[in-house]
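[#protein-structures] MJ: dropping DUF2939 domain-containing protein here for a structure pass
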Amino acid sequence: MMSRTMKAKVACAVLLAVAVLLSGLFWYFRIYTKTPEYALRTIESALDQHDEALFLRHVQLDAVLDTGYDDFMTGTMDAEFGHSHEASAALEDFSKMLKPAFISMLKDAVHTRLTTGEWPSVNPADEAADTENILSRIGVRDLTFREIANLTQNDEAQTAEADVIAHQGEADSDFTFKILLAPSEEGDWQVVSIQNLHEYAVVLQQARRLRIESYLEESNAIIARHDQTVGAAQLRLYSVLGAGALGSQATRDMARQIMEQDILADWQERRDELSAVSVPRSMQSLQQLRLKICDLHIAYAQGYATWMTDKNAATIRAAENSLRQAEVLEVEASFLVQRAKRSFGDKME
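AK: finished. structure tokens for DUF2939 domain-containing protein:
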């Protein structure tokens, strides 16, 4: 049987364990849950668990979006247009006009993210197109959380600051967001603002500018090189047609050979090379236009080569129709290139 002394020791040990457990629970529920660190960890957990109520308990979403919009748009305008007073005044008025709708759509997108775990689906044909433009504008789809660092608390000011490090895929670099927290009336710490969205907007715009410059430089070099090759082939074609009679089979065979082996092959190579270029999101329309131009020139070259054999008027009419469409689209593509350059002013010259 257990001695009285041993029983007393066991009882003391049990009481001590209970006391430690209770003090731990008291510390967790009454102290730790009322700290900035707990708030940040809970926000992270709420995002993972799609718990919108928990997220909103620790994020003053309206306040974050209100100040965040102003800072981000100011940073974007500074990055795009510099500090021109005339441009700034006009753009500031325009920005204020857009603000209510911008914030409303962004709140809806955040709601979707918090309840489903995903941002709204991308479908330019539906009503979510404007929301997608906003999400693309702020680069949120390309942000990947890394870590929370450098959490500091100012007891006198009743605030806390934290560094939230995220990877920005579009810029291909990490960015440190400066988060400001303050306690609510219930004592829960909440994120009340992101303090450096102006800087984030500038970094994002600079990265986008560099990607656009890189895309235009690489793709324009491809186009220029192939234009030179096709131009030389067309001169050979004109020489053959000028030297012989179009009714001659030998002339037609030589023309078909140049069209198939030189011009058609070169347009196919051009398309393949353009398809391999990395394309910024803002240049997707231009890229698709350029590929369509390649397809139309390929169709023209194939039709022209076929006409050299079948001598069918319908064949050449269809080919020439493809060529006319290509020429129209080439004007539009040139316009998009110039607009991209103008959007960044002299910085791309």
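MJ: nice. Residues 30-195 form one domain.
AK: one more thing. The first helix runs from residue 4 to 31.
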